[in-house]
Amino acid sequence: LWQSGRAAPTNVRQAVHTLRDRLEPKRAKHGRSSFVSVRRGGYELEIANIWFDADDFEASSRTGLAAMQADDPEAAEPALTRASALYKGDFLADEPYAEWAFAERDRLRDLAAKVLRALAEIKLATDDLDLAAEHLQRLAELEPYDLDAQRELLALMLRRGRHADAHRRYELVRRRYRRAFGEDPDLALAGLNGNR
Q: Measured in whole angstroms, how far is the alpha carbon of residue 67 from the centre of its chain?
């Protein structure tokens, strides 16, 4: 990584200097870094000064889902809404082949699905069908082969009188499912129509 021999310490110092400049472009030329500190024998990243969106997403998700478990949707909604806003897509999406990130990516995606499902449940309970539809749409895109999510979205589309949208969505799900699994999904618009 740093090459061997005499150049290695210089290369490390240069890399740390560049990192500090990128993290704190307005830091005084020889000022102390809030993020990378010199320690005897090396460097240390000051974790306490760093905000990670994934950590904030997880904490907000856990708070909101715990409130839902306690049957307190009013307390759950702000935390779940924050979590939903923080989840912008797959963890380290710009590193799709980084094997070390696969498990974390899947875990956070599963958590996002739970958040979206809970938000949709809250909005359906208060008859806020537009926001419920937004959450179910995101859930259906996040989990394209989750037939329960697709069913919920289709049923809501029909309930809202969005028959053409429901038909297009159904055809999309059917094509995706057939392409992935070689068979049609166990899903029919006619069965959902009675749920209006």
A: 20
Which pLDDT band, with edges at 50, 70 and 90, does 195 fall under? very low
Give the single-character DSSP code of 47: G
Q: Where are the domains of the chain?
A: 7-49, 51-126, 144-196
How far is 4 from 11, CA to CA, in rounded Å? 10
Beta-strand ranges (E) seen in 25-140 are 36-39, 42-45
Compute the half-sphere exposure of residue 196: CA atoms within 13 Å on the CB side of its CA: 12
Structure tokens at 125: 């309970």
Q: Which two tokens stand for residue 103?
A: 């498990």
Residue 15 CA to residue 185 CA, distance in Å, equals: 52
- pTM: predicted TM-score of the whole model, two decimal places: 0.77
Distance CA 117, CA 138 (A): 10
Say how far apart CA 134 and CA 156 lie, in whole Å. 11
**Do 139 and 129 form a contact (C-beta atoms < 8 A)?**
no
Please state the rounded mean pLDDT for residues 40-64: 85
pLDDT at 196 over 70: no
**144-158 pLDDT, tens per residue?**
999 999 999 999 999
